[in-house]
Amino acid sequence: MVNKVEICGVNTSKLPVLTAAEMRQLFQEMQAGDPSARSKLINGNLRLVLSVIQRFTNRREFVDDLFQVGCIGLIKAIDNFDLGQNVKFSTYAVPMIIGEIRRYLRDNNPIRVSRSLRDVAYKALQVRDNLANRFSREPSVSEIARELNIPREEIVFALDSIQEPISLFEPIYHDGGDPIFVMDQVSDDKNADANWLEGIAIRDAIRKPNEREKLILTLRFFEGKTQMEVAEEIGISQAQVSRLEKAALSHMRKHI
Length: 256
What we know:
mainly alpha; two-stranded antiparallel sheet; 4 strands; disordered N terminus
């Protein structure tokens, strides 16, 4: 039972491990048309999927889901692996498993992004990697935009759209044992002293008009009714409502 992990009903402590010679033999049998060899290759490399999904466990995704998606990447790698290439299977398979998981995470982002925008973002990421290898440095957004012949603003917008949102309660670091959250670093202009004082002034000024003027202001600006609707409700003409409303606002301005 040591190191046992239950994923999708699989006891991972009992997963087989294949040697290089066994892998080569199974690939030869699979490519010769033996379906059982393919199944043995899949089962014999599930530990590789487990090692890859450890990189994504901090995203609060269900491990079972990541494992299943990783298995899809593993199967694609097995079906497309070429024994003629002088490369280890794990070296070939890991990028495919990671790519499959990343596609899953992007496509299941809580913020829905259009397919065309995601395509631009993926192309930009691919070009960024190519330019980084060519220049031996991180390319600028302008260089990526020139390479793709796409406006710089569209590249920025596309890359921002695939960023995974984080919670306001996500801890950034710990200060003296107490965690500092994202929300602690976000300013709130609505709670500024100037707005607080302005709110007090408005509440004080709205007490100045008479009762009819207060009623008109309440119906007009708090309940969103038109002057005609207010006139019908309190039994006066629309012209009178307009005149009383202007008088009430004028009184309020004097006190603010």
